[in-house]
Each structure stands twice: as structure tokens, then as C-alpha cells.
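Per your request, structure below.
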């Protein structure tokens, strides 16, 4: 699709220009980068750690690391994905230090639960837009393990692709599909049990 390729290349060119400006020490360039990606960073870290004070601290750490490591950005993938990868890495290390498991012990990453189809008939966006289930949906998402909660958010709310999520979490695409499938199945069960509808 030429249009999509042209759009992707335009984004990459803008990303490279911003990185060059930051590395050159241009006034306001790093602030521009932070403004562009602080929402994404907060989304990932907050979904992983679920503690506002820790999230604030870890987001600061993310951007310190971004600033220190920006020279390593090669410009062959979106800057958004690169920043997301740093955010995920920082949040994951924080949970590991606290000895908090990031996935259910039953969720293996060797492919046993892999599925080819991501869709299971659960429309997370549609459910989120219905007032009567909005609070219940978010409570159900919060009850998921950190990894599933984050993958679900990145895919449905931040609109990252399976490939991008696999890249930033360093997990196979099949494992990401599995986490999406199983987390949405769990949401459906929780919602239906609370709403009195058959699962």
C-alpha cells in the first residue's frame, strides 16, 4: 500500500529529525520529545505498576534513560516504539525488583497457548464506550496480571500492532496473540458474570 508506506516514511523522517535536534542540543527539542511521548510512557508504566507515585518516578527514569541512550536510536522503526520499549523495560525491572510476577504462572511463553487469531468476538472498544459497563470493564482490566493488562492496553487503546508489542516486550508475536486472546476471554467472563449474561 503506497499511501501507508509513504505515511510510515514521513513519520520516520520526523522522528529522525527530532532525534537529531535533541542530540544537537537544540533548545526545546527534548521537551518536545517528552511532550509527544509522556502519555504513552505513563500508560505503559501505570498499567504495569498500578501505583501513581511509583509511576511518576519511573516515568522520570524512562526519560532519563531515553536522553542518555538516544544516540542508539537508528531511525529504522518509529520513535514511539523505541520509547515504549524503554518504558516497558523500566517498569518490568521495577516489578522484578519487587518480586511481583508480571504474568499468571499458568501463562507460559513457550507457545503452548499460542493462537493464530487474535479476535475472539470481544469488542473491547465497544464495551469501553458503554456507560453501564465502563467502570466494571476498567476494574476487570485492573485485575489482570501486569503483562496482560499492558498488552491489552497497548493493542486496543494505544493502537500498537502485534509486531510492535512483540518488539517492545521481546516476546514472540504468537505469545502476544495468546495474551490478548486469554485476557479478553477473562474480561468477557468477568463482565458476563457481573452483568448476569451467559459467557
Amino acid at each position: 500500500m503506497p499511501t501507508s508506506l509513504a505515511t510510515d516514511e514521513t513519520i520516520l523522517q520526523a522522528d529522525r529529525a527530532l532525534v537529531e535536534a535533541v542530540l544537537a542540543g537544540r533548545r526545546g527539542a527534548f521537551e518536545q520529545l517528552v511532550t509527544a511521548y509522556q502519555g504513552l510512557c505513563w500508560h505503559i508504566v501505570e498499567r504495569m505498576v498500578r501505583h501513581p507515585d511509583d509511576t511518576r518516578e519511573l516515568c522520570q527514569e524512562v526519560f532519563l534513560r531515553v536522553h542518555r541512550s538516544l544516540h542508539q536510536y537508528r531511525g529504522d522503526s518509529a520513535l514511539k516504539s523505541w520509547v515504549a520499549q524503554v518504558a516497558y523495560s523500566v517498569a518490568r525491572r521495577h516489578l522484578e525488583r519487587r518480586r511481583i510476577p508480571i504474568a499468571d504462572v499458568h501463562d507460559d511463553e513457550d507457545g503452548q497457548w499460542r493462537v493464530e487469531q487474535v479476535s475472539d468476538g470481544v469488542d473491547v472498544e465497544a464495551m469501553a464506550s458503554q456507560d453501564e459497563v465502563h467502570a466494571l470493564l476498567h476494574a476487570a482490566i485492573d485485575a489482570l496480571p501486569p503483562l496482560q493488562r499492558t498488552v491489552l492496553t497497548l493493542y486496543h487503546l494505544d493502537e500498537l500492532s502485534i509486531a510492535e508489542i512483540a518488539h517492545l516486550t521481546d516476546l514472540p508475536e504468537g505469545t502476544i496473540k495468546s495474551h490478548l486472546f486469554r485476557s479478553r476471554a477473562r474480561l468477557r467472563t468477568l463482565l458476563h458474570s457481573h452483568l448476569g449474561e451467559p459467557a
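Residues 55 and 179 are 23 Å apart (CA to CA).

Regards,
D.
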